[in-house]
Amino acid sequence: MFKATFFAMGLAMVATVATANSPVATPDPDMAVSAARNQLGVLEYCEAEGHIDGEAAEVQAKMIGMLPAATDEDAAVEAYEKGKEGTVSAMGVEQTLADAAKAQGVEEVALCDQLAQMVVQAGAQLPQ
């Protein structure tokens, strides 16, 4: 389930960024912004734990900069703070990386690496 959550977050982020400057509006921009900020927090947590370098967080921050401003800034900040504590909180799902790793029988570093790779790959698709 956690892999699916990360995958969904990544797809949501890519879709949101792809449509951020198009006439088609995203269904819930606040949800996208909160999910993106949570993901940034998770990446920063992974970096602080020594699991990844800072490249993915830089890419994520660039993607966030392409999103519209949150109308519910408190929710976006809360999502980011949860991410910095190692908790994925997006799309109605909340789970710590440690719990997800244990449930999947992998180390936390593997989940961090998977997320970082996905974000860097998505960032490669962005305009320079």
What spatial order of strands do you see in the largest sheet? 1-2
Which radius of gyration do the C-alpha atoms yield? 14 Å
**Which blocks of ≥5 consecutive residues have pLDDT under 50?**
1-5, 11-26
Judged by helices, strands and strand pairing, the structural class is mainly alpha
User: What is the arithmetic mean of pLDDT?
Assistant: 84
Count of separate DSSP helical elements: 6
SSE pattern: HHHHEEHH
Biggest sheet layout: 2 strands, antiparallel
Number of strands: 2
Measure the end-to-end span.
33 Å
Tally of distinct domains: 1
Strand content: 5-15%
- The helicity comes to 55-70%
Characterize the overall form. Answer: globular
Can you give a write-up of this model?
The chain is built from six helices and two strands, in the order ααααββαα. The protein has 128 residues and is mainly α. The protein has one domain. The chain has a two-stranded antiparallel sheet with strand order 1-2. A hairpin with a 2-residue loop joins strand 1 and strand 2. Helix 1 runs parallel beside helix 6 and helix 2 packs parallel to helix 4. The radius of gyration is 14 Å and the shape is globular. 36% of the residues are buried. The N terminus is likely disordered.
Give a brief rundown of this model.
The chain is 66% helix and 6% strand. The protein is mainly alpha-helical. β1 (87-90) and β2 form a beta hairpin.
Tags for this model:
128 residues; globular; mainly alpha; disordered N terminus
Topology record:
Blueprint: H1 2-19, H2 29-48, H3 55-65, H4 73-84, E1 87-90, E2 93-96, H5 97-104, H6 108-123
Antiparallel strand pairs: 1-2
